Amino acid sequence: MAPAKTDFPPIRACIFDMDGLLLNTEDIYTLCANTVLAAHQHAPLPWSVKARLMGVPGASSGDIFHAWAQLPIPRAQFDREQKAQQMLRFPDCQPLPGVATLLRELDAAPGVELALATSSERGNFEAKTARAETKRLFAVFREERRVLGDDPRVKRGRGKPAPDIYLLALRTINASLGEGVKEIRPEECLVFEDSVPGVEAGRRAGMRVVWVPHPELAAEYRGREKEILAGRMGLVEIGDEEQLGQIDDGWAEQLANLENFPYARFGIEVS
């Protein structure tokens, strides 16, 4: 096994996932699913199943979920009932611990660019960011640097764990840099993720990754952290394994939350 890389260039771009990383929407997704399940006399969604759904576009009502749930209603009905719950609850979502300070300090950091890369489609994104406080929080992401789950530039079937959404986010940053500013390379990017497929997407993009899992997700995958950080869990098979990292290669690390972020470790200067 090759030694861990330590001679990284300073980070010049931070690219963020949203659900469960910036906002507490993963808990809201669980609440919405469980509300519908309870209405049909079904047990709540366990983390052993939810862990396989997180970060995968459309998975909350996809094959894995329905193979487990075996509900006595059509999928379309479940989708409608779950969507109604989501539209009711999304506007009440809150930023997770440390997020407001982190975004404010990174936005002010010299030479650091920010972008958003979320699997949430436009309608859900608007609902989740409807509160004035949330809109102000997300103002650090310029409109042209927000890549959403239904962005037509991301080909269908190429959501996370494919690297496309993160590579596109980097292109939006480079396209809007000031005149004479050198283009940012993938290895100068830091991806912030909470999901396992999201970590894999960042690794496949050739970027450094910080994994900040929900405590229940971390418990579900305890003992497999090194595989996750290398992008080698393979929850969704997409091939191109040469894009994956290696165990303990130094490109990714796990944090419990986004409070007291270790900027210096990534060559980021904050005041």
Written description of the protein model:
By secondary structure, the chain is of the alpha/beta class. 37% of the residues lie in helices and 8% in strands. It contains eleven helices and six strands. It has helices at residues 25-39, 47-53, 63-69, 75-89, 99-108, 122-128, 132-137, 164-175, 196-204, 215-220, 225-229, and strands at 13-16, 113-117, 146-147, 189-193, 208-211, 252-254. Strands 3-2-1-4-5-6 form a six-stranded parallel β-sheet. Strand 4, helix 9 and strand 5 form a beta-alpha-beta unit. The longest helix has 15 residues, at 25-39. The mean pLDDT is 95.
List the helices and strands and how they pair.
Layout: E1 13-16, H1 25-39, H2 47-53, H3 63-69, H4 75-89, H5 99-108, E2 113-117, H6 122-128, H7 132-137, E3 146-147, H8 164-175, E4 189-193, H9 196-204, E5 208-211, H10 215-220, H11 225-229, E6 252-254
Parallel strand pairs: 1-2, 1-4, 2-3, 4-5, 5-6
Helix pairs in contact: 1-4
Radius of gyration, Cα only, in angstroms? 18 Å
Which blocks of ≥5 consecutive residues have pLDDT under 50? none
The count of helical stretches stands at 11
Spatial arrangement of strands, main beta sheet:
3-2-1-4-5-6
Helix content: 25-40%
Shape: globular
Largest sheet: number of strands, sense, barrel closure = 6 strands, parallel
- Tell how many strands the DSSP assignment holds: 6
Structural class comes to alpha/beta
Instruction: Give helix and strand order, one letter per element, not per position.
Output: EHHHHHEHHEHEHEHHE
